[in-house]
Structure prediction request, 113 residues.
Amino acid sequence: MGGNKIDPRLIEELLEEQPEIIGSAAVAVNRDTGIPVLVAAVEGLAPSDSEALKRLCHKRLGRGYMPHAIVRIDALPRDETGKVMRSALAARIKISSKDATTVKDPTSNLTDD
Prediction:
């Protein structure tokens, strides 16, 4: 992001340390302006405070690892081996220039946080 290499596993590991989160994936998503931003999708046992999670990422990992948005999802898209399908996930998330997180497919499992 912004010319810097980001290891999404660091964000995912940090998020998954939180008791309310059972799975996560960090992906680059193009805003409607075409500019990519970092977004984390989380599977949770309960709703989580996305702003608090973003601050945690910033504090523990640094500014470059703070997701632009964190969205709650019922289930991450996975292939038959259980691996997260990052491209499919990124394609289902839309970030507008006004920073509102929406879902391209209203029948998907993604929800606004």
